[in-house]
TrEMBL record:
It comes from Tautonia sociabilis. The keyword Acyltransferase applies. InterPro entries: GPAT/DAPAT (IPR052744), Plipid/glycerol_acylTrfase (IPR002123). This is 1-acyl-sn-glycerol-3-phosphate acyltransferase. The keyword Acyltransferase applies. One of its GO terms (biological process) is phospholipid biosynthetic process. Residues 1-25 are annotated as: Disordered. SUPFAM superfamilies: Glycerol-3-phosphate (1)-acyltransferase. Pfam families: Acyltransferase (PF01553). Keywords: Acyltransferase, Transferase.
Amino acid sequence: MIQNASESPAVAGNGSRSPMSAAAPETPRSHVSRWLIWAVWPIHWVLVRTYFRVRVLHPERLPSEGPVILAPTHRTRWDTIMLYEALCRAPKFRILRFLTSHDEVARGVQGWFIRRLGAFPINTARPTPGALKHCREILQSGQALVIFPEGNIFRLAPGEVHPLKPGTAWLSLLVQNDLGEEPLTIVPIRLTYSDRFLRYRSRAEVEILPPIRVADYAELPRKEAIAALTADLQRALGDRVNDAPRPVIDAIARGEAPPAMAAAPAADGRNDAA
């Protein structure tokens, strides 16, 4: 079982890492403004269903109560909105809490909104004990926490998944130890878009995959449990692993030569760019 919070691996969050991530507070807090959620809901409904063609598969798999980690793939900045769209079709609507990087909550109007919609900043490369304590408190109180286990936005082809960070498994095992007999579940969510760079009437599919019971791994030795849970979550999220660096993935998505290929010399040893 996992008991030492000081040995935490990187925990994935929402958005890209930047030097500003180091400025995340030692003990972040999340706040949900319920009046704001209900105020922006009509705008959300019109915007999402007008701009996108959204299909939600198996919303009944979303737990109506109890502690749960939602673990979606991360393809665009619209992903969070798509999660709420799925929740609207679930048996019961739930308020979500999100891990995000500090620079996301520091961005003007966007930051103001997401801070009040349940997001809280964390240094994804080296989470502080205070940040991990807050994650544990959220789950111990029976709430839903969103962690993007890939750790960044990757514009991959359907069925592909970027190698997952181990932090999601590590945190879930730690919390399961806190909860004792109460089960913690991880719900893998596969987000797929018809276009890597979204445009008007792009298709979006939110597939809620079968939940994973964290207690099934809790009796394994720590490293084995983390590895097994991470591997099972990765298999659930994608059929193929794409471990290319993000700049290469983004270049391919734009139809450009990847950076490493663009700098490669010609086959005869000459560099055509010279």
